[in-house]
Amino acid sequence: MRAQTPARFGMPLTDRELTVLGLAAQGLANVAIGSRLFVAESTVKTHLRRISLKLGALSRAHAVALGFELKLLVPGEPPIVARPQKPHLKENTDAS
After folding, report:
1. 15-69 adopts what CATH topology?
2. Domains in the chain: boundaries
3. Average pLDDT per run of 10 along the chain, which is 96 residues long?
């Protein structure tokens, strides 16, 4: 079971950041992570930059190592991969 995301530098990781970190830990390249999550490679890079800042990591490998050290990632458990969110459509409640 994953631990709660610590606020190491005052900001916890989002669920999406945890997912990206987990996929990076599996050795996936940025393009493959983006494909799996239905986002652009640049979005993956942004997530990885924010993860590194929040964890105080010096590199992608360091971020993954910290993820395991802080029990954000659990060996043998797949990363949380949420389905892409669909835009919320406003229901038309106007009877006219």
Report:
1. Arc Repressor Mutant, subunit A (1.10.10)
2. 15-69
3. 54 93 96 96 98 96 95 85 53 54
Tens of pLDDT, residue by residue over 33-52, are 999 999 999 999 999 999 99
State the Cα–Cα distance between residues 48 and 63, nearest whole angstrom.
8
Q: 80-86, long-range: CB within 8 Å, 24+ apart, which pairs?
A: 80/2, 80/15, 80/18, 80/19, 80/22, 81/19, 81/23, 81/36, 81/37, 82/15, 82/16, 82/19, 84/37, 84/38
Tokens representing 26?
A: 């599996």
State the residue for tokens 């993956």.
44
What predicted TM-score, i.e. pTM, was given to this entire model?
0.76
DSSP code of residue 6: P
